[in-house]
Amino acid sequence: MHFHIIGEIANVETIASGNRIRILAFLRKQYGPGRWRKLKGVARIRLSDGTLRRAEIHWFEAHGIGRKKMRIRRFLD
Asked: Taking a C-beta distance cutoff of 8 angstroms, is the pair 45, 52 a contact?
């Protein structure tokens, strides 16, 4: 499902970091080495059909690499 984040991501929390990330080997191979963390937060998003929803978003992030593999975990409205 394709979506765009509208505004800021709020309530950002770290779910896992380092070896606790299941796909750490994939992330390092695909995007390079870094201090990878899995994060979650709440954001307002626009879906591909144009509707606006509030959703919990999960993604992976490393310093100097940025946010990767963002996905919608659940809708909050």
From this structure: yes
